[in-house]
Each structure stands twice: as C-alpha cells, then as structure tokens.
Amino acid sequence: MIVQACINGARPRDFHAKLPLTAEAMAGDAAACVAAGAAELHIHPRSIDGRESLAAVNATVLAVRQACPGTLVGVSTGAWIENDVERTRAAIAGWRELPDYASVNLSEADAPGVMELLRQRGVGIEAGLATVADAERFVSLADHDRVLRILIEIDIQDLSAALDEAHGIAAVLERAGVRRPILLHGVDVTVWPFVELAHQKRWPTRVGLEDGKMLADGTMAKDNAAIVAAAVAIFRGAAG
C-alpha cells in the first residue's frame, strides 16, 4: 500500500496559501511530500499565468524529477485543461520529458484515444473511474487490461452515496475479472473516510491539496506534506 501525493490539481490560487503553481514550487513541494512518506506524485503543471497546461509538462516533470530522483511522477490529461481534443492530443504527442504515468478520465469522450496515444508514447495509464458508468465503459474496452492501475475517484460529497458508488465500481471490476491495482481516493469531505477504506482494503490512496485541504480532525492542513504525513501515519498504523 502506498500514499500518492496530489499536490495541486485544478484548485484556484486562493484555495490554500501553500498551493504550488510554478514548476519550482511544485518541485520543492514534491520533495517535502516524499520526505513525509509519499511514494508517488501526481501533479498538474501550470503555465506562467497559473493556468493548467499540458505544454508545461516538460519543464515541470523535469523539475520535479530533479528534486525527487527515483520517485514516480504522474500528470493529468483532463479534457478541461486544453479544452480541445486535437490540442490535447498534440500536446501529449509533443512531450519530451515523459511522465511515468498519466491519468485519463473515462467520463471524457476521447478517453480511449488518449489512452492509446499514451501507450504509443510509453506512458503508463491511470484509468480514472468516478461512476459505475465509467467502470462499465472501461471494462468494455478491448485493451482495458493494458493500464498501470485504476483510480476509483469519487467526488460525491454525501458519504453514504459516495461509498455506494465506490463499491459499485469495484463490483463492476470484479465481475469483469479486472486484476489491475486499484487506487482509491475521495474529495473534500470524503478524503479521510476513503483513506480509511483504502487502508482496510489494502489499496493505495492519494491525498493532497488537489483533493482537500483539511486534516481528519477538521483543522486546515499547513501544507501538502502535513496531509501526506497524516495519511502515511494511518497506513503505517494499520500495517503494525
């Protein structure tokens, strides 16, 4: 079981004082997260104006790798980033500093095309499933077993409904005989219940300012490293 750090996501600048938005800030923040126990990193590179950008992957991944040698680094391919299928594909095709993996949301129309492009480029795929419908679409793909892992990522804010959706996704994967690793995470109010559930199921999880800024006790976290440390403590406590 590992804890992946998701350090910024699509959060706006005013979400948290320590939200890293430049390549330099992401590299420093990533190093602090690794020191706190994060085994992997998930980042959303930004352009000079602070907006998410697939074109910024080269400089950002390089900076993070230099700060965190040997740590796997992943990025998002969310359709909203470039907001255009052809621009998204062109940006991925132009990457020179390849991330170790990239997440692809199965709710997005061009998900199969993006997945195939990532395979051609030798980039691992995290298949993001937010709903049972996403899971059903995923298992219908002929090459669904050719992914690094599956993300069960639930953004429903009602905990009971969120748990139902997560269990429903897991059931679809089980019925289809999918045997790829599963990483489970929630968003905002479901972050810590899902860390606990991942821990119970012995699945990896992820935490960080992309998913939420509060600690399990309801206090605001100082920074990403504090959030990671809290999740790592849960995982290590259960392992003992």
TrEMBL record:
InterPro entries named in the record: Aldolase_TIM, BKACE
Superkingdom, taxonomy of origin: Bacteria
Name of the featured protein: 3-keto-5-aminohexanoate cleavage protein
PANTHER family, alphabetized: 3-KETO-5-AMINOHEXANOATE CLEAVAGE ENZYME-RELATED, 3-KETO-5-AMINOHEXANOATE CLEAVAGE PROTEIN
